[in-house]
Design a protein that fits this description.
Blueprint lengths: L4 E6 L3 H7 L5 H18 L3 E4 L9 H14 L4 E5 L8 H10 L5 E5 L5 E7 L5 H5 L8 H11 L4 E3 L9 H9 L6 H36 L7
Parallel strand pairs: 1-2, 1-3, 4-6
Antiparallel strand pairs: 3-5, 4-5
Length: 225
Amino acid sequence: MNQKTAILIFANSAEKEVERKSFLSTDVISALNTQTLKTVEKSGITYFHISEKQQVGTSFGERFSNAIEGIFDKGFKNVITIGNDTPHLKAQHLVDTLHRLEKNDLVLGPSKDGGFYLMGIKKTHFNKETFIELPWQTNRLHKKIVNIATSKNLEIRFLELLNDIDSKEDIQFIIDSFKAIPLSILQLLQKLFFTIKIAFFQEEFSILNTSFFRNFNKGSPLIFA
């Protein structure tokens, strides 16, 4: 296997991640972490998992950039970065990126929220200061990276568009998708989605119920025939 390229799994533990994505459960995030590791191991590419325990920096941009730099400092010429929240990610996406980096400067797997679920980049095109200043965790990220790469005449290849899990709505989208995901994760997402729906309807009922009695108390007595 190509020893010039390494995968960076930039993903926090379930306990840490649920602080940011409170709509998820630790069970779901743990399952996603496990599935991500299985997918990476299946690709056969050398990988490093950088969780919150190894991350250095105050902002996301700093922590992510430092992690990428750390992989390059180990002697690798290319880095493929992924997270843990893309259930449809396959080993083939990683292998395809490995091969495409042989002829292209940058490989991006765009996500539906305007970011990316995968990025393959060469050391020669990695500028830490520029990376830190990118609009991380916004819907402008993908467009900004493409604009910068285009201005530098870099060759970009795109993978298929996938959905990562950044909101409650993403859960339903992934469940309804025709793309295959492991049954264990699908079942956990279905269970979580059902729980979210129940909580939503209970909240709506409570609001309507409270509103009814509030309005009733403000008006004349209700007379039952």
